[in-house]
Amino acid sequence: MPEPTPEQQRDNALTELARLRAGLAAGLTPEQSARLQGATEEELTADAEAFAAELGLTGPATPAPRSGGPRGGDVGGARTVAGGAERFRAKHPQRVTP
């Protein structure tokens, strides 16, 4: 089998991207999205919606919550790492254990 041309590689990548976008919008995983059939964005979207309905999915997957919460609230306004550390220590004095 001959090596694909750069144009074919580009077209394949664009088709894969369209599959992923349609699948993710319908709540499918990337693995499920790879199974979508269609030559146009509309066909891929319709296939993704039908596949998601068969699987009982109701919409885009909810992203996983970020861990750690907001960062930097304890050192607001500090312009350097040392300044941030100083503000943090001032706001959170070290506890002495008995």
How would you describe this protein?
- The chain is an all-alpha fold and 98 residues long.
- It is built from four helices and no strands.
- It has helices spanning 6-25, 30-33, 41-55, 81-91.
- Helix 1 (6-25) packs across helix 3.
- It is elongated.
- The mean pLDDT is 83.
Shape: elongated
Total strands: the figure is: 0
Instruction: Give the helix proportion (percent range).
Output: 40-55%
Report strand %: under 5%
End-to-end CA span = 76 Å
**Low-confidence regions:** none
What is the helix/strand order?
Answer: HHHH
Radius of gyration, CA atoms, in whole angstroms: 24 Å
Précis, in short:
With 98 residues, the protein is mainly alpha-helical. It contains four helices and no strands.
List the main descriptive attributes of the protein structure presented here.
single chain; 98 residues; mainly alpha; 51% helix; 0% strand; elongated
List the helices and strands and how they pair.
Layout: H1 6-25, H2 30-33, H3 41-55, H4 81-91
